[in-house]
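F.,

This is the one I mentioned.
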């Protein structure tokens, strides 16, 4: 997977300790001047094999979920689909969290596809673009305070 950042033990982006993977692509739908991840956008892109990410995740006794965020995970959907397939192959059942700046209606088809690929684990999607000068809001699903009050998470339970 192409990534800009990896935090092996993150306690900021989800209610439990997680592996945070900062994806490498973004269409800058929020506007390039508003990007809260502009430093990340300028960082070099690394490639790390899905199996290596998952092996290190599984060997870490502290992490209980995986978060994809940073730039825009849904702008590199083939990488995310491949990662979901690898999670299935390795029988990882922990939550998968995706931070997207898209609105729910903009990516309904893509989320349905990911849910089909993600039957073994709960999927949580944080929707909404960053809007400056807006108050933050606590999101009970994520267990964190989001930076704009228009952002929210949706919990998609495991599909049997």
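My design for it:
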């Amino acid at each position: 997977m192409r990534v800009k950042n990896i935090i092996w033990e993150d306690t900021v982006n989800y209610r439990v300790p997680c592996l945070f993977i900062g994806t490498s692509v973004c269409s800058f739908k929020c506007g390039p001047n508003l990007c809260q991840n502009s430093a990340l956008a300028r960082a070099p892109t690394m490639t790390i094999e899905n199996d290596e990410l998952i092996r290190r995740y599984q060997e870490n006794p502290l992490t209980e979920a995986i978060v994809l965020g940073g730039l825009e995970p849904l702008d590199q959907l083939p990488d995310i689909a491949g990662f979901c397939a690898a999670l299935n192959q390795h029988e990882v059942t922990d939550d998968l969290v995706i931070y997207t700046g898209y609105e729910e209606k903009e990516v309904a088809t893509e989320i349905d596809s990911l849910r089909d690929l993600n039957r073994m684990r709960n999927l949580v999607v944080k929707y909404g673009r960053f809007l400056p000068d807006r108050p933050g809001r606590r999101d009970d699903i994520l267990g964190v305070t989001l930076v704009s009050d228009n952002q929210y998470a949706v919990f998609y339970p495991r599909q049997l």
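The chain has a mean pLDDT of 93.

Talk soon.
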